[in-house]
Amino acid sequence: MLPTRLEMRNFLAYRQPDPLVFDGIHLACLSGPNGAGKSSLLDAITWALWGKARTRSDDDLIHQGQSEMMVQLDFIQGESLYRVVRKRQKGKTSKQGRSTLDLFVWDAEANQHQLISAPSIRETDARIVDLLRLSYDTFVDSAFLQQGKADSFTIKPPGERKAILSKILGLEQWADYEERAKNALRQIEHEVGVINLRLDEIAGQEAEEPALLRALDVAQADVAEAAALREQAEAHYAEVAGAQEQMNAAQARLAQAQHHIKERKRDLAEIEAEQQRTLDQLGALRALIEDRDSIEQGYAQLQAARHADQALGEKLQAMSAIKDRLTDVNARIQAARAELEAQAKVHSDRIGSAGRIAGEIETYQADLSDVQGEVTQLESDESRRDDLREAISSFNEEMAERKAVNRTLYDEMQAIKARIADVQGAQAVCPTCGQPLSEEQKAALLVELQADGTQRGDTHRANQARMTEITETIKAHRAEIEAIDVELRRLQPLRDRVATLGQNVEAARNANDTIQSESAALEAVEAMLEAGDYARELQSQRDAIQAEIDGLGYDSDAHSAARETLSTYHDYERRQRDLEAALKQVPDLQTALENTAARRVRWEAALAEEEKEAADAQTEMDALAELVEEARRREDEVRRLRTAEKRAEEGRIRAQQALAALDAARRRKEELVQRQHDLMERKSIYEDLRSAFGKNGVPAMIIEAAIPELEEAANHLLMRMSGGRMNVRLDTQREKKTGGTAETLDILIGDELGTRSYELYSGGEAFRVNFALRVALSQMLARRAGAQLRTLFLDEGFGTQDENGRQRLVEAITAVQDHFDLLLVITHIDDLRDAFPVQITVTKTPDGSRVAVG
What we know:
The protein is of the alpha/beta class. Among the domains are: 2-133 and 788-853, 3-Layer(aba) Sandwich (Rossmann fold); 366-489, Helix hairpin bin (Helix Hairpins, Orthogonal Bundle). The protein is built from 17 helices and 15 strands. It has helices at residues 38-50, 121-132, 136-142, 158-168, 172-207, 209-238, 243-290, 292-358, 361-424, 439-488, 491-531, 536-550, 556-569, 571-693, 698-721, 763-784, 803-816; strands at 2-9, 20-21, 27-31, 68-77, 80-89, 98-107, 112-115, 144-145, 727-735, 741-751, 754-757, 791-794, 822-827, 838-843, 850-853. The protein has a six-stranded antiparallel beta sheet, with helices on one face. The protein has a six-stranded mixed beta sheet with strand order 8-12-13-3-14-15, sandwiched between helices. A three-stranded antiparallel beta sheet has the order 9-10-11. Helix 7 (243-290) packs antiparallel against helix 14 (571-693).
């Protein structure tokens, strides 16, 4: 992975700096004041790729006062250019916040980035890890020396060190191979178990063969006997087999005759009802015809009243249309007056409202002046609060740096104490030549060590005092900020109040002009209303329409009399129609009555024939009843014997099937025995593979082969940084107290005092060991793991070294630069910047930190 371009927005100390372009940079120094955000650049890279940084929460990474952030990283992996864009937006809680992640690859043919993200953030994270072939933990344990974590590999237990080395060497695949071999063994063992069960079943079947042969003989005898009995019963049943068919035919004839009898009786009832309806209808019509003279006279009076109503109705219709026009004109005249009255009301309301507003101008002006004064004071307090927050941030960064230095000083003082104890021992030897020290030499060395310890102790105490001072200052600043925050809650409401009061003052100034203009308009409208000077054309139309109504000559009394006559005689029109219909229907009804009588005679004759047919069928059924019962008894016997024969046949078939299954099982047994033999051979092979793929097999051999390479690379750097004094050895096995050996990965350091465990070193010496091993791991990762690691970040180390140690550390960094395409060193020590060909400088500004390459 080789970064080429980094772009940030609202990430930690950065608001929206210019993108940082790494093209053309091979070895560079990243410098700047404490708290400016040097380490934050590396946090941005790890957060973009793995969603992880030094802070515990993504929301803690968002620039203070902002609600969202974004990091975009372009990097080369293999021969392809990729881009990852990770964003975070705050919510009311961390769970309500929203994160997004997009992964792109550059498409040279389309000349644009193509989206290759997975459906979810978790799946896209996994895709990035697969692409890099590198997890965040492996990255920070090898290629990224984080501030305060240079010893993240060396301080881990031996088992975890070995696990890290396994990841770097790409040995995870062997664990996968081992698991696959185990799965294959489990499958084989399961299949062998199934085969054994099946062989046991087949043995049980073979033991039952004699019983099956005896059961077959018995079943064949039962089948022959059942068949003979069944044939005899069938011959007996054939003698009476037709009785039921005869009974069924007689029953069918009876049912059909009964059905016809019901139909004939229903038809005769309908004919009787029809005759009665016709007689009733003839009586009603004849009564209506007897009242013929009265109906015709009433109908004549109805027609005369209808003609009179029609003539008067036409005049009324014409007058209604004219009245509609009159109503419309009156409504329009009234609307014109209402419009003028509404205008007068509007002018009057405006005059009253403007008068009230004009009377408040002095109050508004006084309130505005007071509120503006309060806003000015609070804005000054807000500026003071921002300055205090910036100061606290700087103090925190200084506190963190001094704590780190004190931890290093404490470790170094403990190492000096241990060395003093060694020198004071009876068998103290020279660390250079290995010869025993004289008393004078021991005294001189003790003075040198004690002076060195005193110097570190003084520095430690001075740092402690400064941290106490910083703590008190921060406490005071926070108390002041808290008090200011309480007051600043009033700022925005006061700003809103200033805007409202300004609008009120302007409105009061305009109110007097409004009063004058609205008063003049009100006088004009009231004059028009008093004089009736409106809608003159409509008033002329109203007078003309009224004259037209008066000349029409409509008589409402005559019209009412005609309508009363219509109401009195309206039923005579219906009675006239009924009379005319009755004169036409009487002859037809008399003919229909004669036809109905003839049909009744025919249906009565048919009913007598159907009743005779039903009696004959019943007689035949009574004669067949006993013969049918006998036929049923013989049929039941045949059915019982057929069932017995079928069961005997089924018993014979079961015995034959069982013997056939036994033959098939014997053939299957031969196949199973051969399969069992093949599986046992495969099981032996997979057991060997499981051992070979396990941690004590091929992976152990690869680690053993890699240890010399790791030791050689680490010692090359360590001897260069220590002037040839120190070397490192890695042991992968340890003698057990109970006997035998145990797998481990111990770090042993050799110097002028002999060989000791890494845990006995501290301070600058421990860092040199950490640095040498971490760089050696990075070189191994670049060559072996397939991760194509082309970058090394160093954010640690110079503060623990004296001037000579720093120079050697720079020489070591320069010596390994050819192993990486990009090597970036972070330091706040100004004297070291010139030791590197490229400087990347971070500076703090009021609008967030900035990055410049020079």
